[in-house]
Specification:
This protein has about 375 residues and is of the alpha/beta class. The protein has two domains: about 160 residues, NAD(P)-binding Rossmann-like Domain (Rossmann fold, 3-Layer(aba) Sandwich); about 210 residues, 2-Layer Sandwich (Dihydrodipicolinate Reductase, domain 2), CATH 3.30.360. About 35% of the residues lie in helices and about 25% in strands. It contains 14 helices and 18 strands. The strands form three sheets. Strands 7, 8, 9, 10, 11, 12, 15, 16 and 18 form a nine-stranded mixed β-sheet that branches. It has a seven-stranded parallel β-sheet with strand order 3-2-1-4-5-6-17, with helices on both faces. A two-stranded antiparallel sheet has the order 13-14.
Length: about 375
């Protein structure tokens, strides 16, 4: 099996670490940053590392040629470029998140060409989206009529070294936080202001009770349409500490999240690019943060004529992630589902073809692989109203 991983950040390193452990496997990783490539080589010496500009069509084509699966673990804005080169060169494709709902629609429109080529492209195959979609599918399979799906991303991260941390791609995280919140209800998407619809949600330990905020996320745009059993309601909420929520509001109020370039002396820079340069990357914070991270999917519906609630959840402490995997919990929970999917695909254990979202995969088969990767998905069932 030959894998090409584009992006050597915190999540990319987790993916590579998993893939190099398989027998008769060759893994190459590409990134524009030499320091990230050095870090990957230190943790996964069996992988081949190459400098790569993911914005270059020619470089991407050379990098993926001859591989079985390419994974985009870099910025989502390169998804479509990499995807087009993958189908052209007969390579299966996986990414971890979409640039925007519109960009995901553009990717989904490539379905016919991928089916014709006998190839598979899996979009948004990380923690959430990704594992969350698969858990939603599994929970819906346990019910006769699923009516409501709530996705909750929980975390209690703290750091003595950094006043503000983003546990996944900082640009994506900040843009999501200040974008209008969407949720699906009664057959249509509805909108509310950024960081609205706040609630206190009780996660199982080690996360516990935290404040979560409504966000615009891929699950809202796919679960109501691609699940075999269609729910009437879907939302997504993300946990933010009070300090993090206040910091994001301050960044936004000061214009520091503006991506438009402005003249500063003789240089043209955007406030967002400066802020991102100052923030630590997810790969830098491993071993320097404490607390926990995880995702929970709550599905309400009917089973044998009775109201029932099914909850699937997975969590990990940052300390455990660092001690066992030299990672932070969010990077580990994001990269591991990607690696599972890549292995299953390369080994011929996924029959789907075309362009799909994770809820179209065989959820039970996928979750059956999870324990072997230290991914402990728990399931709770209870009568409705309990």
């Amino acid at each position: 099996m030959k894998f090409a991983v584009i992006g050597a950040g915190g999540v990319g390193r987790v993916i590579v670490d998993h893939l190099v452990k398989a027998e008769e496997t060759k893994v190459k990783v590409g990134d524009i940053d030499h320091s990230r490539l050095r870090d990957v080589k230190r943790s996964a010496g069996e992988a081949s590392a190459f400098k790569l500009d993911a914005a270059s069509v020619a470089q991407v084509e050379r990098f993926i040629k001859g591989c079985d699966v390419v994974i985009n673990a870099s910025d989502p804005r390169f998804n479509l470029l990499i995807m087009k080169q993958a189908v052209k060169n007969t390579v299966h494709y996986i990414d971890l998140a979409g640039e925007s709902p519109l960009s995901v629609e553009q990717q989904m429109r490539q379905d016919r060409g991928w089916r014709k080529a006998g190839l598979l492209a899996v979009l948004g195959m990380g923690e959430d989206p990704g594992l969350s979609n698969i858990m939603a599918r599994s929970g819906c399979n346990m019910l006769d009529i699923p009516t409501e799906i709530r996705v909750r991303d929980g975390e209690t991260s703290t750091s003595e070294q950094y006043p503000f941390v983003a546990l996944f791609a900082p640009r994506v995280f900040l843009e999501e936080a200040v974008s209008p919140c969407h949720y699906f209800e009664g057959g249509e998407l509805k909108e509310s202001p950024p960081m609205s619809r706040k609630e206190t949600y009780h996660f199982p330990q080690p996360i516990g009770e935290v404040s979560v905020y409504g966000m615009d996320h891929e699950e809202i745009h796919t679960l109501p349409y691609y699940l075999p059993k269609k729910p009437n309601y879907v939302d997504f909420k993300l946990a933010l500490t009070e300090d993090s929520a206040n910091a994001i509001k301050l960044f936004h109020g000061l214009g520091l999240l503006d991506a438009k370039s402005m003249k500063f002396g003789k240089a043209q820079v955007s406030p967002l690019s400066v802020l991102l340069r100052l923030l630590p990357s997810p790969s830098q914070i491993a071993g320097k943060i404490h607390g926990s991270a995880g995702v929970l999917v709550e599905i309400n519906g009917e089973k044998s004529g009775e109201q029932q609630v099914v909850k699937l959840h997975v969590a990990m402490t940052h300390d455990e992630a660092y001690e066992k995997h030299a990672s932070n919990a969010t990077s580990y929970l994001t990269g591991t589902p990607t690696a599972i999917c890549a292995r299953m695909l390369a080994e011929g254990r996924i029959e789907n073809r075309g362009v799909i979202v994770p809820e179209r995969l065989n959820a039970e088969s996928f979750l059956g692989e999870a324990p072997g990767y230290d991914l402990r998905v728990q399931v709770e069932k209870m009568k409705g109203g309990q």
